[in-house]
Amino acid sequence: MKKVILLFFVYLNLIPNLNALIKVDITRGNLDPLPIAVSPLHVENSSEKLENIDIKKLGINVSAIIEKNFRSTGLFNPLKKEAFVQKPDIAHLKPRFEDWRLIKAQALVTGKLSVKNNKLKVEFRLWDLTASKEMIALSFTTTPSNWRRVAHIISDKIYERLTGEAGYFDTRIIYVAESGPKNQRVKKLAIMDQDGAKTKYLTLGNELVLTPRFNPSNQMVTYLSYFRNLPRVYLLDIETGKQEVVGNFPGMTFAPRFSPDGKKIIMSFAKDGNSDIFTMDLETRVVERITEHSSIDTSPSYSPDGKYICFNSDRSGLQQIYVMKSDGTNVKRITFGKGIYGTPVWSPRGDLIAFTKVRKGRFYIGVMRSDGTGERLLTENFYQEAPSWSPNGRVLVFYRETKSGPQGKGFSAKLWSIDITGYNERRIKTETDASDPSWSSLLSK
Amino acid sequence: MTKSLFYSIIFHLMMIVLTALSLPFMTREPINLPPIVSVELIQITDKTNIPFAPKARKIIDKVKKEEKRVVSEQAPPSAKAKEKPDRIPLPNDKEEKKEIIKKKQNPEEIKPQIRQSSEFEKEELINTNEIAALIDKAKEEQALKEIENKKLTQSNVKNSFATGLSLSEEDALRAQIFGCWSVPLGLPYDKDLLVRLKLELKKDGTILKSEIVDHQRMNMPGQKFYKILAESALRAVRLCQPLKVPPTGYEKWKNIQLNFDPTEMLKG
User: Are residues A124 and A263 in the same domain?
Assistant: First the structure.
């Protein structure tokens, strides 16, 4: 009897399998850049004329910036405009999807702009060409001089909609602009859009400036400059231009960086050949010692949740990277590889730490997990350092010094960016030589 | 004359002796040819379309497991007596408990016990447990889902047995979709990234109907990434169509489910 019941149950269980649904697992895809068509924005005929801006070309210029942004990511392949099959104004109303699919585009950006009462209104739509539907449509109104920013914001929105992570186009990079021969180098603080446009110099170059760092929550900058021949950490409000010395330390302070909430500055303070890590609360001005060790502890950087700090120290002999809790306890060494490790920077996503490694006279920029595992060296060169993360944690900007001139006697410092995959290494064009870059957070949040 | 005859006989004898001695060394060993294996060429489809295979395998696995359990459950009374009777076993304690019992058992004592249980008894024990597992299908499905999520490679193997497609047909389809799927790179790989896409296909492999199984998840707060991932999966199949499906057996693959999961790829 038991056997009969058992067989009955087994039979019942197997019936669905006779017509089982076929299931296929897809665990891989391609990483080829997504073909995208960015149609020039249609300029409405009723638009007012502007003094400094050619309104007729504005539609093309905005789409050109969007295209350039996409191309720089390495994730998109903006298609050539010659192949476009529809006029911008008609495409913006309702694209002929099958025609756009013919040129192998998978996504299409259309838009239009107008100027009325000295206000620039820009709207755009992102179309999924395979599904034949609209994915996102937004409209922005601003002063006409802000047209570049609008292009960056549109790029961010599209990037986020297609990749799932926040963009990094509406951001700025602060760096040290360098000029003159090596022994008489003039160093000025400079700021520009992430694509290299709109450079502005913040200091005159009378004093040496180093290591500018953005506040992750607003447009403040901390940097190192010389005050009465002593290197000191400064704070600068970019909007107002107001500068102030951070803390009243009886020695040299350097390697400053903001805490993730922007309320504290963490830095190194050196006295009598020893250097330790301190924090200072910007509101209360209370200074707190974080490390106390006879070795040189420097280059501190907070994790994005503010719970941990990574820094480099030579307490084990060679300079290596350590991680500790934000109160200075539980110090753990995380790098054990051959070579010297320095300038650790915690990713805004929290999963990786970027660093500079020196081995056998070569400089590497790399990333590793926050526990020190999974070290990946992204780029190698004669001299390069100071990586800084894009706000979405996908791209690193750093500077590289190379020999220049016909006999290789001179040298030049340039900014470069690289994807965390190690691909898509690109030079960021600057007006002068540049070093020590720091990437801002998104201007429009 | 007699002298030369004598020499001739001696030399001939020597030759005979030498020949007799050297012949065995001169004989070549026969070439050891491997036996000819006859191979029958058959359609893979015929062999991989065994609908019962996964269940059969599961049952075999269960039998193996249950056999182990039989051993551990039939611990001598002395070993059981040492257990704390008041203690309520927690789910996590199970494994630990089994181990403890195993250690306490004398291997010599176990063997006769195995012999003691008749084949019928054994079968009954196994079958009862199996029925329980079969009735509790929800659990089984959940377990399968977990395996699908966590051990992708294992699920691949499973699929080849479970589906109506042969290994080569499934691989062809998979390779085709790999090429069409642009994976969104900004996805949080520490979250569940499985997108199940049900398709109804025409005979030529074009898509008649597509449906995201967990479509309600697309509009859930905090699941924005899921929408982006699901859309990318939909884009992939639309780009790929007509899908590479076998020319025969339409009823088998008319409805197909594609499980997109880029976790392994994103973790790199």
Answer: no
